[in-house]
C-alpha cells in the first residue's frame, strides 16, 4: 500500500514536468540475471518479458506515446544453435501472449510494429509477428516498436537501397535526397510526429554502448546507462530516468 502511494505521488510529480513522447530501451542483462540466479534456459528472458509489460503499463500511465525496444539483434544469430532455437521458441510464445493481451493492446489502442530483417526468422515466428501487427494495425493512440532481427546499420543500408530504387525509377531527383527523406525510409518512420526519434534511450546492465541500435534516430537523444539487469528494472528505475531527462531538459 505504501509502495503504491509512493508511486502515485512520484507519477504526479513527474507529470508536472516534461515527459518524453518516445522512449527507447536496450533490454540488456537477461542472460546475466539468469546465470546469477542459476535459472533454467529461457526463464530469465520470460521474466524480462514480464518486466517489459510492466514498463509498458507505466509508460501508458505517464502518457509516453511511443516505446521502442531492442529485443533481438542480427548479431544474436551468432550465438549457439541451441540458444537461438530456444530464443525463437520463446519469441513465438511471447508474441502470441502479447497478441492475446487485449486489455493492454486493444483497450489502449496500441499499434505494435516488429521491425527488422524478418526474412531471417523461422516461419512460425513470422506468422505470430504478422498476426500481432495485423491485429493492431488500425490502432493510432500509442506505438510499440519491437526491433527483432535488427541492427541500425542494416536499417540504414535498407533505407539507402530503397532511396536508390526510387532514384532509378525517377520517383525522386538527386536533389531530393536529404536527412528528411532518409528518415522517411527508415523502419521506425510513421506519420505520427513523435514516433521516429526517441528523446530518451535507456540501456540496462551497465554496458555503455549502443550495440548498433537506432544509430540514426538517437543522434540527439539523451542516453542513460543503468547498472540494473533488465528483469530487475522497476518503476523506480523508470522514475529516476524521467527525473534525469527532466533535469537535462531544463538545462
Strand line-up in the sheet with most strands: 3-4-2-1-5-6
Profile the largest sheet: 6 strands, parallel
Overall mean pLDDT stands at: 93
CATH topology: Undecaprenyl pyrophosphate synthetase
CATH superfamily assignment? Answer: Decaprenyl diphosphate synthase-like
Question: Could you explain the architecture of this structure?
Answer:
This protein has helices at residues 2-15, 30-36, 43-62, 81-100, 102-105, 123-136, 152-168, 179-184, 235-250; strands spanning 22-26, 66-73, 110-115, 142-150, 200-203, 222-225. With 251 residues, the chain is of the alpha/beta class. The chain has one domain (20-151, 195-250): Undecaprenyl pyrophosphate synthetase (3-Layer(aba) Sandwich). A six-stranded parallel beta sheet has the order 3-4-2-1-5-6, sandwiched between helices. The longest helix has 20 residues, at 43-62. The protein is globular and about 65 Å long. The two termini are 35 Å apart.
List keywords for this structure.
single chain, Undecaprenyl pyrophosphate synthetase, 251 residues, globular, alpha/beta, 9 helices, six-stranded parallel β-sheet
Give the secondary structure arrangement, pairings included.
Layout: H1 2-15, E1 22-26, H2 30-36, H3 43-62, E2 66-73, H4 81-100, H5 102-105, E3 110-115, H6 123-136, E4 142-150, H7 152-168, H8 179-184, E5 200-203, E6 222-225, H9 235-250
Helix pairs in contact: 1-9, 2-3, 4-6
Amino acid at each position: 500500500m505504501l509502495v503504491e502511494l509512493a508511486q502515485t505521488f512520484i507519477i504526479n510529480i513527474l507529470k508536472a514536468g516534461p515527459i518524453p513522447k518516445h522512449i527507447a530501451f536496450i533490454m540488456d542483462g537477461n542472460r546475466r540475471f539468469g546465470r546469477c540466479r542459476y535459472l533454467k534456459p529461457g526463464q530469465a528472458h520470460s521474466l524480462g518479458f514480464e518486466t517489459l509489460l510492466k514498463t509498458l503499463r507505466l509508460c501508458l500511465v505517464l502518457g509516453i506515446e511511443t516505446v521502442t525496444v531492442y529485443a533481438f539483434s542480427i548479431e544474436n544469430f551468432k550465438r549457439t544453435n541451441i540458444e537461438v532455437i530456444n530464443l525463437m521458441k520463446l519469441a513465438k510464445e511471447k508474441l502470441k501472449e502479447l497478441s492475446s493481451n487485449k486489455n493492454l493492446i486493444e483497450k489502449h489502442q496500441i499499434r505494435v510494429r516488429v521491425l527488422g530483417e524478418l526474412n531471417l526468422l523461422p516461419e512460425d515466428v513470422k506468422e505470430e509477428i504478422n498476426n500481432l501487427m495485423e491485429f493492431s494495425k488500425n490502432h493510432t493512440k500509442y506505438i510499440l516498436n519491437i526491433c527483432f532481427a535488427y541492427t541500425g546499420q542494416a536499417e540504414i543500408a535498407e533505407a539507402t537501397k530503397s532511396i536508390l530504387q526510387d532514384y532509378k525509377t525517377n520517383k525522386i531527383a538527386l536533389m531530393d535526397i536529404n536527412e528528411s527523406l532518409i528518415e522517411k525510409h527508415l523502419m521506425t518512420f510513421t506519420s505520427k510526429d513523435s514516433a521516429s526519434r526517441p528523446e530518451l534511450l535507456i540501456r540496462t546492465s551497465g554496458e555503455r554502448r549502443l550495440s548498433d541500435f537506432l544509430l540514426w534516430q538517437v543522434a540527439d537523444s539523451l542516453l542513460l546507462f543503468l547498472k540494473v539487469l533488465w528483469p530487475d528494472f522497476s518503476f523506480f528505475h523508470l522514475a529516476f530516468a524521467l527525473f534525469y531527462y527532466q533535469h537535462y531538459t531544463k538545462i
